[in-house]
Design a protein that fits this description.
about 5% strand, 2 strands
Length: about 210
């Protein structure tokens, strides 16, 4: 008979937990299989880079992670145009293209254009037919010396978070941030009116 205010014994001892337990004994074999798959992929895509398509540098969204940079989906059409690369030819030479992304700052545009130019300078295009090479194809010497790149083609820039103290310049003291922003907003607002006045003035001068 149960005494006192204790928990009523209700043990479940026939659960067969060993049939349902999650084990991880296959982890070493999976590690070996992943390594073998990486080697097979490198041989399959050779002499192209193992890392895949060449991608731009983008900033992460939101104010919390916006200071960090990472690899983006693809280069914008404006970046390709500034670098002198055709959008259709870019995919054929291992450059990722993202027609939906757009540049919000001049700094990111210049950075990615510089990366594209560096990639273009290091690019070795193998001819489809070695006997009949086309314009822009690499020579036999260049193709023989080409090696497959294991890591990143152009590594991501490592931005230092340390800000060193310095003296404030006179130009920074004289700069009026509020007035500059107000002038920029006003110029953007009345840009259409100015263009209309310029067209009317030009038409009046012709008549």
């Amino acid at each position: 008979m149960v005494k006192h205010n204790n928990v009523i014994p209700n043990g479940h001892f026939k659960k067969h937990w060993e049939r349902r337990v999650k084990t991880w004994f296959n982890q070493p074999a999976r590690k070996l299989r992943r390594r073998e798959d990486r080697v097979k992929k490198a041989l399959r895509v050779a002499p192209r880079p193992v890392a895949g398509s060449f991608r731009p540098v983008v900033h992460s969204p939101t104010a919390r992670y916006g200071a960090k940079v990472r690899s983006g989906r693809g280069f914008t059409l404006e970046e390709l145009k500034e670098a002198g690369i055709n959008r259709k030819d870019a995919k054929t030479v291992g450059i990722a293209v993202d027609h939906r992304r757009h540049n919000n700052s001049e700094e990111s545009l210049k950075l990615n254009v510089q990366r594209l130019k560096e990639y273009k300078s290091r690019l070795v295009v193998f001819p489809r037919n070695a006997k009949k090479p086309k314009a822009g194809d690499a020579t036999a010497t260049e193709t023989a010396a080409a090696k497959q790149i294991k890591g990143a083609v152009v590594p991501l820039p490592k931005a230092s978070s340390r800000v060193r103290s310095r003296a404030i310049t006179q130009a920074e003291r004289d700069f009026k941030a509020v007035r500059t922003l107000q002038a920029a907003r006003t110029a953007a607002r009345i840009e259409g009116v100015r263009q209309k006045m310029a067209r009317e003035k030009a038409a009046a001068a012709e008549n």
